[in-house]
Structure formats: C-alpha cells, structure tokens
C-alpha cells in the first residue's frame, strides 16, 4: 500500500479520535519542541514508518499525539520504549494492562494509551499514568479535607501540585479544543497555585 494512503488513513483515524481542530503557529512551535515526527523517529531507530503506521492503526502502538499543520505525525521520542520493555509489540498490551488489578480499568487505560492522547505526560508509562491519576484526584479533593486552609494542608497541597507539575507537559491551545475545556494542568496546577496563599502562579 502506498505510503501516502497509509498516512491518510492515520490522519483520518487521528481526527476521528481528536476531532478536526486547526493547529496554530504557536501549536506547531510547541509540538515541534516537545515531540518528533514519526518519519524522523523511525529513521533514528531503523524502523519502517509504514510498518509503524500499521501498528498504530491496529491499536498495537499509540496514535500520534498531534498532527502538525504541515501533516507531520508528531510522536514522543520514547514511542517504542514501552514495547521494548514489554519484550515486543506483541506482548505490549498484556504487559501494560497487567499493571492494573481491575480489568475494566486496565482495558480503559489501554484504550487511552493507544489513542495517543496521553500527551499530558513527559513520559508515558503505567506507573506515570497511575501517579498522575492519584495526584489529580488528591488535588481535586483537597478543598474538602478536614484541615483545609491550614498551614499543614497548604504544605501538603503544595507538594502534590509540585509533583504533578514535574510529571505533566505544558499543553497547548489545541489540547483545550480537542479535550473540550481546561486541561489538568489548568485546573490542578495553575489554578491551585493562583488560588492558595503561599503558592505562586506559574505556566
């Protein structure tokens, strides 16, 4: 199958998952700084880009995180790392889902992973996903804790926010379009730092 045909299929699948939203110059600049094109990454690793597109379309590897406005399929530099750790693409799904005791959650997380939408993390792994989910839940629930507003509470919240900040990327305006609103960085990092005394606003 011609490369252009496979590339078009992947672009269509990407838009089915993410919607059809424009990428601005600022979006392109952000993505180019944070990600690498699929063609470039495959060249570095000695992989055939068409073969990788087949794996993506078959839900064996994540879809690209972004389509740059020039059509480049932008992926994380460690796209192949989890498959290598699992012992190969064929073992990846079983290895990945084994990190969750609940099979329903495991299946949902696998679906989220292969959707390519875990662009929130600098490095995507089951451990990072689980930690991010724990931190966002804890930060969101912090306002309802019995000692909310106390110095100890503020210190604890500050620590949670800082840890999440280290895990998460900055995001770009395109993400707020495809996810339909504020990102977890907006709600759990920027907003929390802006609202709580002793926490300074960032990003």
What does this structure look like?
With 203 residues, the chain is mainly α. It is globular. It is built from 11 helices and 3 strands, in the order H-H-E-H-H-E-E-H-H-H-H-H-H-H. The protein folds into 2 domains: 87 residues, no CATH class; 84 residues. A hairpin with a 5-residue loop joins strand 2 and strand 3. The C terminus is likely disordered. Helix content is 60%, strand content 3%.
Keywords:
mainly alpha, 203 residues, 3-stranded antiparallel sheet
Quick overview of this protein structure:
By secondary structure, this protein is mainly alpha-helical. The protein is built from eleven helices and three strands.
Per-chain topology:
Layout: H1 3-18, H2 25-34, E1 36-37, H3 38-45, H4 49-57, E2 66-67, E3 73-75, H5 81-86, H6 89-97, H7 103-114, H8 126-141, H9 151-167, H10 173-178, H11 184-195
Antiparallel strand pairs: 1-3, 2-3
Helix pairs in contact: 1-4, 8-9, 9-11
The radius of gyration over CA amounts to 18 Å
- Proportion in β-strands: under 5%
Oligomer: single chain
**If strands are numbered along the chain, what order do they take across the biggest sheet?**
1-3-2
Class from helix and strand fractions: mainly alpha
- Given the C-alpha coordinates, what overall shape results? globular
N-to-C SSE series? HHEHHEEHHHHHHH
Count of separate structural domains = 2
How would you sum up the major sheet? 3 strands, antiparallel
- Output the number of helix runs: 11
Q: Uncertain runs with pLDDT below 50, 5 residues or more?
A: 198-203
Average pLDDT, all residues: 93
Q: Tell how many strands the DSSP assignment holds.
A: 3
Q: Helix coverage percent of residues?
A: 55-70%
How far apart lie the N and C ends? Answer: 44 Å
């Amino acid at each position: 199958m011609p490369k252009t045909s496979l590339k078009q299929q992947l672009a269509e699948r990407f838009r089915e998952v993410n919607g059809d939203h424009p990428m601005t110059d600022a979006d392109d600049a952000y993505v180019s700084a944070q990600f690498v094109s699929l063609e470039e990454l495959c060249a570095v690793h000695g992989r055939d880009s068409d073969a990788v597109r087949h794996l993506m379309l078959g839900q064996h590897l994540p879809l690209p995180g972004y389509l740059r406005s020039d059509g480049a399929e932008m992926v994380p530099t460690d796209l192949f790392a989890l498959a290598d750790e699992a012992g190969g693409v064929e073992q990846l799904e079983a290895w990945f889902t084994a990190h969750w005791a609940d099979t329903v959650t495991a299946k949902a997380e696998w679906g989220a992973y292969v959707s390519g939408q875990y662009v929130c993390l600098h490095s995507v792994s089951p451990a990072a996903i689980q930690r991010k989910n724990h931190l966002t839940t804890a930060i969101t629930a912090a306002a309802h804790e019995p000692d909310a507003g106390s110095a100890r509470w503020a210190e604890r919240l500050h620590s949670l926010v800082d840890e999440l900040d280290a895990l998460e990327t900055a995001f770009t305006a395109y993400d707020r379009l495809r996810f339909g609103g504020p990102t977890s960085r907006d709600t759990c990092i920027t907003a929390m730092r802006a609202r709580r005394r002793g926490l300074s606003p960032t990003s």
